[in-house]
Design brief:
Two copies of one chain form a homodimer. Chain A is α/β, with parallel strands linked by helices. Chain A has three domains: 2-130 and 299-315, Rossmann fold; 135-295, Dihydrodipicolinate Reductase, domain 2 (2-Layer Sandwich), CATH 3.30.360; 339-412, Alpha-Beta Plaits. Chain A has helices spanning 11-22, 24-31, 59-63, 81-90, 100-116, 134-140, 155-167, 171-180, 189-192, 195-209, 228-236, 299-315, 352-363, 389-401, and strands at 2-7, 35-41, 55-56, 68-73, 94-97, 121-122, 146-152, 219-220, 239-249, 255-265, 277-284, 288-295, 340-348, 368-370, 379-383, 387-388, 405-412. In chain A, strands 7, 8, 9, 10, 11, 12, 13, 14, 15, 16 and 17 form an eleven-stranded mixed sheet that branches. Chain A has a six-stranded parallel sheet with strand order 3-2-1-4-5-6, with helices on both faces. In chain A, helix 4 (81-90) runs parallel beside helix 5, helix 7 (155-167) crosses helix 8 and helix 13 runs antiparallel to helix 14 (389-401). The longest helix of chain A is centred in the N-terminal third of the chain and has 17 residues, at 100-116. In chain A, 53% of the residues are buried. The interface between A and B is large, with 51 and 51 residues. Strand 12 (288-295) of chain A pairs antiparallel with strand 12 of chain B.
């Protein structure tokens, strides 16, 4: 029998206890060991919980108990998660965590400590909730040189975009609905501003390319500026607007990555991913395109991924799995503006025709004008040809200085 | 350094050698060992191959060489693959195979031998080509009770159906094109008749539910009878016809499975899987729906899955992974006709109106009539309500005896 501890008894933590109890027998059969929850660390009390008797408030009880072989971290946030996980590893306990912020900020350091102590630090649940992605990327696609990953990594924003696209629901109203349904926090900024997706693409980039990428190195843009007009124009070129996290390996060995609302063509597998679902597209030299799709959040999906990691830790006590990446570096991440893209631009001008002619002068003859129903006079939308963002943004400034006020612009994805 | 042997130097076997060579350094880094191809077993000679010097014709050289720790089986077919793989395991060598027929027919026996000898028998490439599915099902979803799997498991038939749906290309012509493009064999029966998909769903069912299911236990129906008229009627109810392999766990512990052309609603993730791509939908009690998408065949995708297994074998020498299932049994698989479904029925009669009234009498008032452009007089198509196939087929016989000749019928999927 293996004793484990759960740190944090919130949504995911209580889900972990629920899955371990509900599927106890098949889990025991599959990993050849009985798994017993000995401690649950939380500052709150849970008098009505069946696990009430295991709830403790003192972390040291876990740290000092050699009976505990595996610790589940579901506290979230960076502190005290970081300190606790570090101390668990230093005291010889493998760790399974769902904490994306922790792995995105401290993954390289913690993986090194795990390696030095021949322990496992697993985090399948940190990206894509219950969707298997970390292990497949590390093992199943190991024979590939993965060179690009693009994904819908945040269910809340995808739900909001789906409502805007399918039901022409304005952003604010869709956000409110997401909050009512419990998909979005009262403070939705981490989702809406793209921070959550940023942490996830950083973890995927670190794992796929072998060196740590920090959230501070990832250009991140949220969806709060997206309007129904943008959605309508995007549809006109056969696209939908999605919050996409992308990373790419460059020929010189550096990586480039970003999180931003992006117009994705309907023909792309990511375009059909709706509501709170997530999907991750992985490109490898041998495999070509692979897509992983499922619920990116939610109590039980996330918990099932954590428990799968716990089972893996139990099967690999005193024998590390190879999940690992090297320390990061400032010059490892290239300027995202070197990325080639085309832009959807929406502008207003007293004379749309003249403004379009001006746009042709500045962006080139190959720009394509878009129209929508009931288009107000003076509104203009077009898609530019492909170029690096540096060049496109220069032209954008020139264009604005020429008297056209740009209302918004969105990258058009060439996936 | 680890020495391996490759049995069978056809498409997949040569792909394995190519991937191991092309990505040699990163593979060595990832599994902490240099992997060297010592032998290639094939009856043919390959004088122009860079591996010409390793080609042997005598299996015993591999069997008797204790230097060989891992053997790759890409011979295909049941014999001599079965005998060779068995002898490899009995002589202490782990095996990675892409051979679905071998695993579907002999998996339980070979897995037992691997277990008894503390060796690994891995077969990620046997289902979904390069798509990670075996390992995720075994590990990532291990905390779930998986209760249903449905998939587009054969790229050739999916290519044909896509041509029929997108371009109204008749079956025979689409098949011919698939052969010209190298997607279909000169004898296409294994693909077109569903045998290939049958083997794959058997492997998935065996792994997900823990006991061996044999191809002979799986009701299998091919796509050769599907017409453009069927495609047109299916579109009218918002569906597309796909060759779907499905398996389900029943409350009484038995399983039911089948491979058959099925009308899938456009809203289902499987409906948007086109051309030679495969997709596998897995349903678990905690995770909900997860979909794995990618190239189900092809030299390099399949080879990359085989090589990933080789790397896993190398990382786990003398330490089994838990991939395993129990022996099968005749009474373990329930009659597929107990499965509830609704049916699309196409019939002809001198008087379509009367035939529809008759259909209502026999199938019930809730049947829905379908129409298509330029529908010839006397043609009738409708969708029945949901019931077990046993009941529906009885009604079908009664209907035919009432003077309506049924041209075709296709199950409508409730995924």
């Amino acid at each position: 029998m293996i004793n484990i501890a759960i740190m944090g008894f919130g949504t995911v933590g209580s889900g972990v206890a629920e899955v371990l109890t509900k599927n106890h027998d098949s889990i025991a059969r599959k990993c050849g060991e009985d798994i017993r929850i000995k401690y649950i660390l939380d500052l709150r009390d849970f008098p009505d919980s069946p696990f009430a008797d295991r709830v403790i408030k003192d972390f040291e009880l876990i740290e000092k108990d050699d009976d505990i072989k595996v610790v589940v971290e579901c506290l979230g946030g960076l502190h005290p998660s970081y300190e606790f996980v570090k101390r668990c590893l230093l005291s010889g306990k493998s760790v399974s965590t769902s904490n994306k912020e922790l792995i995105a900020e401290k993954g390289d350091e913690l993986l090194q400590i795990a390696k030095d102590n021949n322990l496992n630090l697993l985090f399948e649940a940190s990206v894509g909730g219950g969707i298997p992605i970390i292990r497949p990327l590390d093992q199943c696609l190991a024979a590939n040189e993965v060179y690009e990953i693009a994904g819908i990594l945040n269910g809340t924003t995808n739900f909001i975009m789906t409502k805007m696209i399918r039901e022409q629901m304005p952003f604010e109203q869709a956000l409110k609905l997401a909050q009512e349904l419990g998909y979005a926090e009262r403070d939705p900024s981490a989702d809406v501003d793209g921070d959550d997706a940023c942490r996830k693409i950083c973890i995927l980039a670190s794992l796929a390319f072998g060196r740590h990428v920090f959230p501070s190195q990832c250009y991140t843009e949220g969806i709060s500026k997206i309007t129904l007009e943008d959605v309508e124009y995007a549809a006109q070129i056969g696209g939908v607007i999605k919050l996409i996290g992308r990373c790419k390996k460059l020929p010189d060995g550096r990586v480039t990555l970003m999180v931003a609302p992006t117009i994705v063509m309907r023909s792309c597998q990511l375009a059909n991913v709706e509501d709170v679902f997530n999907a991750i597209l992985v490109r490898g030299d041998a495999i070509g395109d692979v897509v992983f799709y499922g619920r990116g959040a939610g109590k039980l999906p996330t918990a099932s991924a954590v428990v799968a990691d716990v089972m893996d830790c139990v099967k690999h006590l005193n024998r590390r799995k190879y999940l690992f990446w090297e320390k990061g570096a400032p010059d490892y991440v290239a300027d995202y503006r070197e990325w080639e893209t085309s832009l959807y631009v929406r502008a207003s001008s007293f004379d749309a025709e003249a403004a379009f002619e001006k746009a042709k002068e500045i962006f080139g003859e190959d720009i394509r004008r878009l129209h929508r129903e009931a288009e107000p006079a003076g509104e203009l939308a077009f898609v530019t040809g492909k170029d690096t963002e540096i060049v496109l943004m220069q032209r954008m400034r020139i264009y604005e200085n020429s008297g056209c006020s740009v209302i918004g612009c969105i990258r058009v994805c060439d996936l």
